[in-house]
Each structure stands twice: as structure tokens, then as C-alpha cells.
Design goal:
The protein has 373 residues and is an alpha+beta fold. It has 11 helices and 16 strands. It has 3 domains: 59 residues, no CATH class; 167 residues, P-loop containing nucleotide triphosphate hydrolases (Rossmann fold, 3-Layer(aba) Sandwich); 126 residues, no CATH class.
Length: 373
């Protein structure tokens, strides 16, 4: 990808430079579509056009260097950094070493998708918890705000904070793929100008391919950057048709299981939780409401999985499962109430003084954190 110049045409959906010579390349658009798009002031690359109208996704030839190139530019700017994380997948939303990229620029931390968490969870407590997670990752945000870009919750409050902290500067919006950055920016544009769904959005990781610049009233810009690809998220493992499981659309309803040591929970066929040591306790599972959870005995769990994965235990199907990495186990002993997180899928709240094992496809991160709820 090349640096942009004033005469380059860019896709208003993903920010890619428009070109009509390489059908397999980023930003490809047939010449006839370019001419039509310029007339209508609605110039999209072919990839975004298909995504918007047919929900199709095409692979693109981007790599980590492309994303790091954009991040490296931010540290040289005098700007406000709006750092968007997914409150349903905070661990998978954190960008390692972001504090090194932003330089001395102030950071406003935005926890998106707050509508997915139970209404009973106090938002002040959640806000403080999200801030603590950022602090643990080495970031010291000036402020933290929770929003729902999809439902347009707290967008006015966010805009007030952006205006307060940017002090006449440009605004860079950063985050990993699938945290809802483009949906958030569309909500901001809608709130300020009335324009609906300008930027391409989807559940597919990596929708924004290059910087998208939106002019602000004072001559400065709001800049949407490409999502940093976090390969340890479940979204990069599952077949695309199951992405709704890792991108819930409705409030999560926790499911409570009274477990004895020696019991197992299967999360479809894509993950597993073993309760190894501890007294009889209640465990709360926070996953998409449509994800099937099946309880069985730990002693029989391996055989049960081999027999039923892809059939009784779904998703995925047995054929799709053969194309996915095998499940790997991760052992933890916790001394205080914690969450066992399967990155990009959800978590199970574990009581103090327990030994547990989390299983996920090879390459997907499994970790333990301070309990959110």
C-alpha cells in the first residue's frame, strides 16, 4: 500500500486507494463503477460493495506491517487517540504496547458494546473495571466512557469528551478488528451530520483497510484506522457463518451451573471447560445466548467429544471441525473469584480456590483475569 496523495481516490467504505488494474488487489473497482461512483459521490471498492449489498467478504493482502505502519504515524501526530475496546472481549481488544505507539498524545478509552452486558451490572463499576484492565496493559487513559455504537447509547457523552480532550486537534480512532470502530464512527457521523452508514461495517474482521478521514467542523479530522489483527481471537478460527457466536447482537443472559469437581461443560464443539478441584459451587457462563452448552462428567469427556463433536455438539459440523485446529488445554489454579476467558468467545466466572482447565482451538488465547461481575 502506498502513502496517499491529494489526487488519489479512496473507497469511502474501507479507506483503500481505488484502482482498476488488479482485480485481486486491495481497492479494486471496475472503471465503469468508478465513473458511476464519482457521479453519485458514493465511491466504494468492489469488496465493500459486495459486503454492503450481499454480505460477502473477500480476502485482502494486508499484514501486520500495514497496520503497524499506520500506528507508527500516530505517535508523530499531535492528536487525541480514541481507543476502542469491546467490553465483551476486553482481553482480546487490548493492543500490546499501544502506549509506545501513541507517544505523548492523550488517550480516551471507549468501551463499546456495553448493551451486551447485563443491565444489572452497575456501569460505574464496569467503567472502573475496564480502566483497570487498560492500566494493567500499560496504558493510562485520560478518561473512560462506555457506549453502544449499535444502539447509539452515550454517543452525545462521548462527543462531549472528544471535544473536551482534543482541544482543536485531529482525532485518531484505533482498536483491534471487530470491536465496532466503524460502527462507532458511523454513529458519530449520524449524530453530527445525519448521514447514515457511510463507512463499511460487518462482523468480519479487518473491514477497514486504510485510514478514513472525516472532516470536523473546525478544519481538523476524525481518522478511522485499520483494525489491528489479533490472531488469538476465536473469530479468526471459526468458519464465517458462525461469527454471530463471537459477535453477539443481544444482551447476554448468564447461565448458571452448579458443578462438582470432576464435571465438564462443552461449548458447542469449539471449546470446553473442566472443573478439576474445588467444592460444589455455582459457575456463571457468559456466552452468546445461542451457543449450546452441554454438561457431562470429566472422566468421560474425551470419549464424549470424540463421539459427538460436530453432531450433538455443534457448532461447527463434523466436516468443518476437521478443518479447524484441535482443542488445546490450559490449566489454572485461582485463589480469588476470577473469569476464565476464551478470547473472542466469552468467559466463565470461577469461584475462589478452584483448579480449572479451559480448552480452545490451538492458537486461541485462554486466560484468567479479575472477575468482571
Amino acid at each position: 500500500m502506498t502513502e496517499s496523495s491529494d489526487d488519489e481516490l479512496r473507497c469511502i467504505g474501507c479507506g483503500a486507494i481505488i484502482q482498476s488494474t488488479d482485480p485481486q488487489g486491495v481497492g479494486y473497482t471496475p472503471q465503469s463503477a468508478i465513473e458511476k461512483g464519482l457521479k453519485n459521490n458514493q465511491l466504494y471498492c468492489q469488496r465493500c460493495f459486495r459486503l454492503r449489498h450481499y454480505n460477502e467478504i473477500a480476502p485482502v493482502s494486508l499484514n501486520d506491517d500495514d497496520f503497524l505502519r499506520v500506528l507508527n504515524q500516530i505517535g508523530n501526530q499531535d492528536a487525541l487517540i480514541v481507543y476502542v475496546v469491546d467490553v465483551f472481549d476486553v482481553s482480546g481488544s487490548l493492543i500490546p504496547g499501544l502506549h509506545r505507539f501513541v507517544g505523548k498524545n492523550p488517550v480516551l478509552l471507549v468501551g463499546n458494546k456495553e448493551d451486551l452486558l447485563p443491565h444489572s451490572l452497575r456501569r460505574s463499576k464496569l467503567t472502573d473495571w475496564v480502566r483497570q484492565q487498560a492500566n494493567a496493559a500499560g496504558l493510562r487513559p485520560r478518561d473512560t466512557v462506555l457506549v453502544s455504537a449499535k444502539k447509539r447509547h452515550q454517543i452525545d457523552q462521548l462527543l462531549d469528551k472528544i471535544d473536551h480532550y482534543r482541544q482543536g486537534k485531529d482525532v485518531y480512532v484505533v482498536g483491534v478488528t471487530n470491536v465496532g470502530k466503524s460502527t462507532l464512527i458511523n454513529a458519530i457521523i449520524k449524530q453530527r451530520s445525519g448521514i447514515q452508514d457511510l463507512i463499511t461495517t460487518s462482523r468480519f474482521p479487518g473491514t477497514t483497510l486504510d485510514k478514513i478521514e472525516i472532516p470536523l467542523d473546525d478544519g481538523h479530522k476524525l481518522i478511522d484506522t485499520p483494525g489491528i489483527v489479533h490472531e488469538e481471537q476465536m473469530a479468526h478460527i471459526l468458519p464465517p457463518k458462525y461469527l454471530k457466536i463471537v459477535a453477539p447482537q443481544r444482551e447476554i443472559k448468564p447461565r448458571t451451573y452448579q458443578l462438582n469437581a470432576g464435571q465438564t461443560l462443552f461449548l458447542g464443539a469449539i471449546a470446553r471447560f473442566d472443573y478439576v478441584v474445588g467444592s460444589r459451587e455455582g459457575f456463571e457462563a457468559y456466552f452468546d445466548n445461542g451457543l449450546m452448552i452441554h454438561r457431562t462428567k470429566l472422566a468421560n469427556a474425551d470419549h464424549f467429544y470424540q463421539k459427538h463433536a460436530g453432531q450433538l455438539l455443534t457448532p461447527p459440523t463434523r466436516t468443518e471441525l476437521a478443518q479447524m485446529p484441535p482443542l488445546e488445554h490450559h490449566e489454572f489454579s485461582v485463589t480469588h473469584k476470577s473469569d476464565l476467558v476464551i478470547e473472542g468467545l466469552g468467559w466463565i466466572t470461577v469461584p475462589a480456590n478452584s483448579s480449572v482447565v479451559g480448552w480452545a482451538p490451538k492458537g486461541v488465547a485462554v486466560l484468567v483475569r479479575k472477575a468482571m461481575i
